[in-house]
Amino acid sequence: MEEHVTGTAIFITADQLGISDEEPGKNLMNNYIHALAQLPAAPDAIMLVNTGVKLAIDDSEAFEDLKTISERGCDVLSCGMCLNYYGLTESLAVGRISNMAEITGIMTSAKRTITL
Q1: What is the 3-state secondary structure (H, E, C) of 63-115?
Q2: In sequence order, what are the residues at sequence separation of 6 or more whose Cβ sits closer than 8 angstroms to the Cβ of residue 50?
């Protein structure tokens, strides 16, 4: 496994933030990603797993903000196994397909990993 060294990595495990009803949780996650897109510096990596991969598809409310973050140099990675499970591999619209080995490498070498 190749070693990745990065500053800030964000590990997103769901398409909603917190434990709540679906709609408020999805709104919170979209607002979080929008706030990330407004920061002066983008994180080094955003890793999407489980239902988090739904954020990187073309009809996601978070798509435009993730695209902006990616264009600012952030590596946006989506778990290939998760995309496949949800039937979304062909719908990935921002970032790239990755795997748990790479995601684990980034998480363990980052100076700071934020998990949502």
Answers
A1: HHHHHHHHHCCCEEEEEHHHHHHCCCHHHECCCEEECHHHHHHHHHHEEEEEE
A2: 13, 14, 79, 82
Q: Is position 27 within any domain?
A: yes
CA distance 98 to 116: 18
- Tokens coding 6: 């990065």
**pTM beyond cutoff 0.85:** yes
Residue 1: inside a domain: no
Contact at 8 Å (CB) between 70 and 44? no
Q: How many CB atoms lie within 10 A of CB 101?
A: 9
Domain count, the chain: 1
Residue 51 in 3-state DSSP? helix
Question: Model confidence over 17-62: pLDDT tens digits?
Answer: 987 777 899 999 999 999 999 999 999 999 999 999 999 999 999 9
